[in-house]
């Protein structure tokens, strides 16, 4: 019987000790906090001023939520303590990177991803770099929006395909192509000059002062040559004149071969023809109507261009001459002069 009483008293004593143990654990957690983080101010538990009474709100502030029955404000603070919560990790931000257009969309106008034929010379058909250059040229010609873009090409000549990519677009596209070689053969100069009978250019005009100056005679030969064979205009002609034999060797980077022509120097007094004589076919010095757009009708430069076009069309001998025009749009007249002629002429016109 005594033994049973001791057991019963021991159980009751153990149950009574549980709140003290819990209080001790809570106190340990409170002690580990910094003074500023502890509820109720800077005073430590167990020191003067520490009570179990709820904290009173400061005057003028909104009262805090009432404590739940059976919980002190200190216990509620423990239950909601987030000071030890782990909030580390990357913070996601919206992706503001601009989305690139897909290269496949840019090239969708190329049917079946087949670029077709690309032109290269026979000498370059097996040179990867040259073929890639030709592919790029053909590609930009077909898809003009690619002009100026950073295109990267990786051609496989054995398979006749090319992988296209670009920093300006997303993705890559494989295209098929076919190499077409051109002979690259230049036209023969002799064929271009076959209209010159017996390879005799005839008379070329130079001044008396210049008749023995090789450079001046060659300039006169070139002028006469282009006048007779207009397809030579703008071509890279090279002349080697022999004034003692009155012949000239003509060659050009634009043609194959060379041709020797005969010529005769004809000297002139050096006096320039009068511009008024050159323009005498224009009745009453009235050029008539010149064509310009509505937007350009008040632009002096555009009107002068139209005047020059109309003038050369009416007086073909002025073609290639150094014409200078000064138009007065308010009076509808233009002063014409030229380094190739003497004097100046005022013409009327209508826009």
UniProtKB/TrEMBL annotation:
<feature type="compositionally biased region" description="Polar residues">
    <location>
        <begin position="90"/>
        <end position="100"/>
    </location>
</feature>
<protein>
    <submittedName>
        <fullName>Variable surface lipoprotein V (VpmaVprecursor)</fullName>
    </submittedName>
</protein>
<dbReference type="GO" id="GO:0005886">
    <property type="term" value="C:plasma membrane"/>
</dbReference>
<feature type="region of interest" description="Disordered">
    <location>
        <begin position="29"/>
        <end position="100"/>
    </location>
</feature>
<keyword id="KW-0564">Palmitate</keyword>
<feature type="signal peptide">
    <location>
        <begin position="1"/>
        <end position="23"/>
    </location>
</feature>
<keyword id="KW-0732">Signal</keyword>
<keyword id="KW-1003">Cell membrane</keyword>
<keyword id="KW-0449">Lipoprotein</keyword>
<feature type="compositionally biased region" description="Polar residues">
    <location>
        <begin position="53"/>
        <end position="65"/>
    </location>
</feature>
<dbReference type="InterPro" id="IPR049890">
    <property type="entry name" value="VlpA-F-like_signal"/>
</dbReference>
<keyword id="KW-0472">Membrane</keyword>
<keyword id="KW-0677">Repeat</keyword>
